[in-house]
Amino acid sequence: MIATYDNTLVLLSIVVATMASYTALDLAGRVTHSSGRTATLWLLGGSAAMGAGIWSMHFIGMLAFELPIPVFYDGWITAASLLIAVVTSGYALSVASRRVLGALSLLGAGIIMGGGIAAMHYAGMAAMRMSPPIEYDPGWFAASIGIAIAAATAALWLAFTLRSTTSHLAVAGKLVSALVMGCAIAGMHYTGMAAANFAEGSTCLVAGGGLGLSPEGLAAALGSVILSLLIATLVASSLDRRLATRTARMLGEVEQANAALLAAQESLRESEERFRSAFESATIGMGLVSLDGHWLRVNGSLCRIFGYPESELLSADYQSISHPEDLQADTEQVRRLANGELQSYQMEKRYFHKDGHVVWVNLSVSAVRDARDVPRHFVVQIEDISARKQAEEALQNMLREQALRDPLTALFNRRHLEDAVEREFARARRNGEPLAIIMVDIDHFKSINDRFGHACGDAVIRRVAQLLVGGVRRSDIACRYGGEEFLLLLPGAPASRALELAEVICRSARDLHHDCDGRSIGAVTVSCGIGLFPDHGATAEVVMKAADRALYRAKDQGRDRVVLAESAIRRQG
């Protein structure tokens, strides 16, 4: 019999084959990127969609094949052909979703799948149940099987290669590959149809049978079910791909967030480790202090500065070891720091060492705040500056001492004398004790300066000053009162002590021999005037005037002598 083809249905069969091929390529990636139950569901669903697509292409092709006799199809055989297509497609998807696909595995799978497609085709032809049976041209028959195997092998290789790509170029590649595969599958079908020979007078044994399917009914079923199934499968695959992409992106973001968190934690750990190392090994005292002033953490340097072991210091607060004169200023700064008025502060402050002595420190304090800017605790840095303070105090004492000393003789000057006289007279009046003042003047000093020069005169003044210092007690005060004039303040000394000392001074001065620039100055004498409290006055001013008048009387009486106020006693060597 001579058969004809409906070109529209032929074109439709190629379109369906192409859609089925694209669905297969797309689902291979879904199976690969899934696991467990999800992968199984995608494999089953993909097998059904792909198998039904290939099967529907075959029967659309059969609908396009028109014989001059009524043609029906056996329902059970048709169903069997569908089952063959579904099972074959399932095997193809499982192969394409493997992690690795070698050349031999690919060829073997292509042979099995191609054979399955050919079996589906010839089972569908057998569903016509023609009488006499359909005869097949061996050459065309072998060619159809060869095309099926080649198409299946190419399909598996393309599905394996393109399964994990999602770019726009990959989608275009899938479309081209699906078109090639669709044409190849259709080519296998129409080659197989070319191999079929229908004898003249052949009849379809299924025609009018209870289980027979009319071409119109089969076309309606294929058009409604297969097209819906393919479209639904592609939509589900697309949605799943988008969900997988979104999930992958979210997982990537989570991984990035976790990586950032781990990096931040590592950075925090390293920062804490650096702080701990710096804290413990710092040469200055460091500590963490709670908002109420208790020590939370201290290093070894801080314990050494205060003299406390760590356990004792941690059980105390900073207020208990602070000097009371500095505590109020420190507490005020702490209040301002906690309120956010200050970022940090520094001050010099005194603490008490465990043994009781005062420790001067340079104190630096800053606050550690939480994310809401609420202070959690304070970081304290303490540098022991006691040595510096002691040096400063020694310097100040030296400067004060220098301010009260005569630079030429190192004796006290008149400024110090004024304070000392008032103080000692007040004490003498309070305790009812005597007090003596001796005025000492170098005789003929002007002639020494005139004959030998001021440098020699200064040398004489220094030697007399040394003589005075060597003769007084620790409680006595020796001052340079004027150019060549000196004053001795003797607390608690009666007249006898003052007279004795004055006579020793005169005698010692007389025994001195002075040389200047290789020239002998000769003997230098001094004159002394003595005033007593309370014998010669009740105030310092009166007693000093009495001693001064006694000194002038000693000068008038020939010098080199001692004169007691209101009386004269001459002592000559």
Please give the structural blueprint:
Elements: E1 4-5, H1 7-32, H2 36-64, E2 65-66, E3 73-74, H3 75-96, H4 103-126, E4 130-131, E5 135-136, H5 138-162, H6 168-195, E6 196-197, E7 203-204, E8 212-213, H7 215-281, E9 285-289, E10 295-298, H8 300-306, H9 310-314, H10 324-338, E11 344-352, E12 358-369, E13 375-384, H11 386-403, H12 414-431, E14 435-442, H13 445-452, H14 454-471, E15 477-480, E16 485-491, H15 495-511, E17 513-516, E18 519-523, E19 526-533, H16 540-556, E20 562-564
Parallel strand pairs: 19-20
Antiparallel strand pairs: 1-2, 3-8, 4-7, 5-6, 9-10, 9-13, 11-12, 12-13, 14-16, 14-19, 15-16, 17-18
Q: State mean pLDDT (0 to 100 scale).
A: 79
Contiguous helical run count: 16
Q: Sheet bearing the most strands, described?
A: 5 strands, antiparallel
**Relative helix content:** 55-70%
For this structure, the quaternary state is single chain
Strand element count: 20
Low-pLDDT stretches: 209-213, 567-573
**For the largest beta sheet, what order do the strands appear in spatially?**
10-9-13-12-11
**CA(first)-CA(last) distance:** 178 Å
Radius of gyration: 62 Å
